[in-house]
Amino acid sequence: MARDLKPVYHAINADEAATKLEAFAEAWEGKYPAAVALWRSAWSEFIPFLDYDVEIRKVICTTNAIESLNARYRRAVRARGHFPNDAAALKCLYLVTRSLDPTGKGQARWVPCRISSPKAR
């Protein structure tokens, strides 16, 4: 089902997407009428998505990296507990972000960030 739906949101414009949706509906409406009805009812909300370039659409559809970064931020903040000021909190988030690319050459390295407290030193 996902393979047949992919051409809809990879379409170049709204007309092509509508054609692909009809092909999807022919194939799956008998087995999953609610899924087809959902796409048809939300069509007006979906069409603005097609106005973006293909590269931007990929970023919009792929939130795994953003969610991973947010999880790392939460984990680092939770481990620290509190911060004496805003600068300390920003430094902690900076170090978490920096740990993802320790070389500074754009090579992502997804490693757990170990931030030690001043008492542990």
UniProtKB/TrEMBL annotation:
Short name of any one Pfam family annotated for the protein: Transposase_mut
Keyword DNA-binding attributed: yes
Alphabetically ordered keywords of this record: DNA recombination, DNA-binding, Transposable element, Transposition
Family recorded in the similarity comment: Belongs to the transposase mutator family.
Function, as annotated: Required for the transposition of the insertion element.
Name by which UniProt lists this protein: Mutator family transposase
Organism of provenance: Myceligenerans crystallogenes
Source organism phylogeny: Bacteria, Bacillati, Actinomycetota, Actinomycetes, Micrococcales
